[in-house]
Specification:
about 450 residues; 12 helices; Heat Shock Protein 90
Length: about 450
């Protein structure tokens, strides 16, 4: 008995079974690209994934009389990818483009490997062809074998590919949205390739499967190569970060040595000039000189020690570069990192861009004052990361205007930094910013809160 000879309710149940099996396999591959959700998360959010199967099956079953062949397959592909992307955003709390790219990558692995495995299964069991077995028995056979096949390959891939490497590669991409669209187009091509199996003549079936396998390997190897290249770039950035840190320490030691030489020279001159004065005057002068030395030495050592509390390499590297740049401009910079900072509920490169914009603006504004300085504070409190940057400012203006595109104290053609900063923040509902100017001090504050962090 063929599929069309079955009652309508059985046809619908078999269609649901087919979509449910596909959803399960998609989830197995998403586990490779993202970290494994906790049991509590799965218990709360897996039922919605199970509901997606009858929903897409209803579209498949209902639209079969209107659309046929490739248009119907592409419609189902779009619907499944969109629903899975939204579900992944809910489970893993990732941006839309990350989840879309991951779902498309998982869909390519699902469609291509399933086609290859199914034909190999029928080749191993010649009598178990669709002409000699009922659709229900075929479904049971696939449920017993296909998920195990995908699970074994996903475990192998997971061992070769560390967790979150795929998302890290997307974060470092020049345009993550364009990368996600490229993967979506590749996944659509695999859907069409999958549908072509029904028109391939038996004599060319082996060539068709070979082409499908080669394309799958090429796509997987390309993505794997990009992630390995990303790992190499991270190692290079980490080495550069360590070099910058060592240069900062070396510069601090040189400055301390110069301070000690100056202190010894001043002490000699002070003793010579105070030979005829009273003892209490000499003691007071020495104490003032010692206090000044301790203050200068303390500032040098303070910055070097605070850098150690930054456990995010990208942030640490940026601040090392900015502090060195401000030192060349003779702008004293005080860095306060009271507690270890090791994570932020924001894409790291967006945070780097925001921090770079704020520090550049602070240094540029401080240079217009008689006594420039910049103070940077990072405070990590459980699920909240606070960034505050202060600098002296002698200009005039309404801080609310700073968010407008093109506004700048430097005239026309400037002012794109703070506007870009605000545009980045609009993508994160848990992030807030504030600006204030009081007593000649301009302060920018950025608060990054994890979703559900505060009760």
């Amino acid at each position: 008995m063929s599929y069309l000879d079955l009652p309508l309710w059985k046809q619908f149940l078999l269609t649901c079974e087919d979509h449910l099996l596909g959803n399960l396999i998609l989830f197995l591959w998403l586990r490779v690209l993202f970290h494994m959700p906790s049991a509590k998360q799965l218990f709360k959010k897996l039922p919605l994934l199970l509901f997606l199967a009858p929903a897409t099956a209803a579209v498949n079953w209902g639209m079969a009389g209107i659309l046929q062949n490739v248009p119907l397959m592409l419609l189902l592909y779009l619907l499944i990818d969109l629903s899975f992307t939204l579900w992944s955003m809910w489970v893993w709390r990732r941006p839309f483009r990350h989840c879309l790219a991951a779902v498309c990558m998982a869909g390519m692995m699902d469609s291509s490997l399933s086609v290859i495995f199914t034909h190999l299964l029928y080749a191993c069991f010649p009598m178990m062809s669709p002409e000699h077995v009922t659709p229900i028995m075929t479904a049971c056979l696939l449920w017993l074998t296909l998920p195990l096949f995908h699970f074994a390959l996903s475990v192998l891939w997971r061992r070769l590919w560390p967790q979150e490497r795929f998302c890290t590669c997307l974060e470092h991409a020049g345009d993550p949205g364009r990368t996600a669209l490229l993967l979506a187009a590749l996944a659509a091509a695999f859907v069409v390739l999958n549908h072509m199996q029904y028109g391939v003549q038996p004599a060319y079936l082996s060539e068709y499967l070979l082409v499908t396998a080669v394309m799958t390997i090429l796509v997987a190897a390309l993505v794997f190569h990009l992630t390995m290249r990303d790992r190499d770039l991270k190692i290079l950035n980490l080495q550069k970060d360590m070099l910058d840190h060592q240069q900062l320490h070396a510069q601090t030691l040189e400055e301390l040595q110069a301070e000690l030489k100056t202190f010894r020279h001043d002490c000699r001159n002070l003793l010579t000039g105070l030979m005829g004065e009273q003892e209490d005057g000499l003691s007071r002068s020495l104490q003032e000189l010692e206090t000044g030395l301790e203050k200068r030495l303390g500032e040098k050592l303070h910055t070097a020690s605070q850098i150690g509390n930054l456990h995010i390499p990208q942030i640490r590297g940026l601040l090392l570069s900015k502090i060195a740049q401000m030192a060349r401009q003779n702008i004293p910079c005080r860095l306060e990192v009271l507690y270890p900072v090791d994570h932020a509920a924001m894409e790291i490169w967006d945070l780097v861009r925001c921090l770079g914009i704020l520090t550049d603006n602070a240094a540029e504004a401080a240079l217009d004052t008689p006594r420039p300085w910049v103070e940077i504070l990072l405070l990590q409190e459980e699920s909240v990361l606070t960034l505050r940057i202060s600098n002296p400012w002698t200009g005039e203006g309404d801080p609310a205007c700073f968010r407008e595109e093109g506004w700048s104290t430097r005239g026309s053609g400037r002012g794109t930094g703070l506007f870009s900063y605000q545009r980045i923040l609009r993508r994160y509902p848990g992030v807030s910013s504030s600006t204030c100017w009081s007593g000649g001090v301009f302060t920018q504050e950025l608060t990054i809160e994890e979703p559900g962090g505060r009760s």
